[in-house]
Amino acid sequence: MLTVNHLIFLSAILFSIGAVGVLVRRNPLIMFMSIELMLNAVNLAFVAFARYLQNLDGQVFVFLILTVAAAEVAVGLAIIVALFRQRETIDVDEASILKG
């Protein structure tokens, strides 16, 4: 039987993996996947607490977070495609020096 402690521990592990992926990797696609992993870890925590408290508010927040995550992916991928078309590279270090 899974308890809230198990789910929160799993959520913390997933969030940590996502944070390490954002900090260590320099590929923007990997960084976006790591951010999505962090958002899903938060979703898992919300659902675990909603189940523990017998309240549906946490699950409503999950739908809100999923909507924001989908918008973030769409905008982020559009930026990556535009950057690749202009610079012919998607290196994060070179993207930080863009102007105008």
Structure description:
There is one protein chain. This protein is mainly α and 100 residues long. It has one domain (4-91): Helix Hairpins, CATH 1.10.287. It contains four helices and no strands. The protein has helices spanning 4-24, 28-53, 57-87, 92-95. Helix 2 packs antiparallel against helix 3. The protein is elongated. 8% of the residues are buried.
Quaternary form: single chain
What is the helix tally?
4
The global form is elongated
Q: By helix and strand content, what is the structural category?
A: mainly alpha
CATH-defined fold name: Helix Hairpins
Distance between the first and last residues' Cα: 56 Å
Name some characteristics of this structure.
Helix Hairpins; single chain; mainly alpha
Brief write-up:
The chain has about 100 residues and is mostly helical. The protein has helices at about 5-25, 30-55, 55-85, 90-95.
Set out the fold topology:
Elements: H1 4-24, H2 28-53, H3 57-87, H4 92-95
Helix pairs in contact: 1-2, 2-3
